[in-house]
User: Fold this.
Amino acid sequence: MTVNQILSTKGKDVYSILSTNTVYEALTVMSEKNIGAILIIEEGVLKGILSERDYARKIVLKSKSSKKALVDEIMVTEVFTVSPSDKLEYCMELMSTKRVRHLPVVENDVVVGIISISDVVKAIIEMQKETIAHLNSYITQ
Assistant:
């Protein structure tokens, strides 16, 4: 299974903010959209990513104000991305080795979607269910 197959099921919605937004504004969008991370895209270029983990570690634990801190103060700028044709096994390996939970999907230098570890796990579970059903069918024939 590929990243594109996940996107065809979950959708290709991409939510983004600017690095000059406050962390509070970013969290508001994340809450409204029910997402765990948001991309920072400026003039069509992926500049970073901000996750709930970043907020917890860089704002809450340091007693900073999310209404005063800007996104560019806490966003991660080393963003690992995948392409629509990448296999799920590669995505899982990348997420595991780089310790990230979200991977923007980039095609021709444009962000066309984002996948989370949850999306990958769900897809793998579905693949395993299909394999089990196929094997059961084979055995009972």
Observations:
- The CA atoms of residues 36 and 58 lie 15 Å apart.
